[in-house]
Amino acid sequence: MANATIRGAVSIHGTNPQFLIEKPVRARIYESPFWKEHCFALSAATLLPLAVDLHHVGGLTGLQRPSHFLCLLQKLLQIQPEPAIVDAYLVAKEFKYLRVLAAFYVRLTFASSEIYARLEPMLEDYSKLRWRDAGGAYSVVHVDEVVDMLLREERVCDIILPRLTRRDVCETRDGLAPRISRLETKLRSAVEAGQSDADASDDSEADVTRWKLERVKRAARLAHARKQHRHEGGDAAEAEYTSQEEDDEATKRRRFVSPSPSVSPDRIAARQGYVSRSPSRSPDRMPSPAHSERGYVSRSPSRSPDRMPSPGRSEAGYISRSPSRSPDRL
């Protein structure tokens, strides 16, 4: 039970959240001493001291031994904290390893548009981290480098990352606002002032600025429309974090209502039985004059000659078509 996912967990990408880490890596995590000694019965609150005390980021090192970072990531997938708790992890700038751990969890479990919205602000964090490679050697990386790897690479820390939708697709489909870097502070000031154009010394720069302004306005309109649709449809955020098993049970209990109110003519009367749509009957199914009830009449009234009654018998008997007999039967 110590390795089981918490009851009522959400299905992530159509599978158990712990299965986002491959089975060989997951098995090594379950067998590691750090998991058995320190990761038993952890919660979102009791996990904080262990995440703050991390001293490096890495995957499998040496003889395929999982790092403490991987063990805590597996624990996050197992307990599945609420999105508000994950956001609180991300804004704790004084604890850089906790932020990177939360960023890795967001990359594994959240939707593409939410990943861009939560991780791109961390690209401006240049704090130093210890990175341990597969050979056990340490190197210095920065937080923005790790976040960039999460957004661009397919495998980080020996974990295959889920497929990430392109950013321009998220802008068009989900209303994600275009990213404005520090080099575009002039554009940001123009957006906040509500100007339609920004001062530029070159015409090409002005065209690029105008194009980004249009993207910002379009993304704001899409986000506002999606917010209104979510508000009219009900609590979409709560429905997003509902267990898949409960959804299946509710679907089974829910009564099916046909979208087409039309009723078949033979189903109009509630007490009326089934009426065939083809009232025509076969001639041999009609009642005969000798019988008051319907009887089956063969369509082929002809009989085989050996089935006809013989002169010596009143009833029809079987006559062999081969009259020859065996010599021992004579």
TrEMBL record:
Residues 222-330 are annotated as: Disordered. It comes from the Eukaryota. Pfam families: PRP38. GO terms for cellular component: spliceosomal complex. Its main location: nucleus. Residues 276-289, 298-314 have a biased composition (Low complexity). Residues 235-249 have a biased composition (Acidic residues). The keyword Oxidoreductase does not apply. Keywords: mRNA processing, mRNA splicing, Nucleus, Spliceosome. Residues 321-330 have a biased composition (Polar residues). GO terms for biological process: mRNA splicing, via spliceosome. It is found in: Nucleus. Coiled coil: none annotated. Required for pre-mRNA splicing. PANTHER family: PRE-MRNA-SPLICING FACTOR 38A-RELATED (PTHR23142). Belongs to the PRP38 family. This is Pre-mRNA-splicing factor 38.
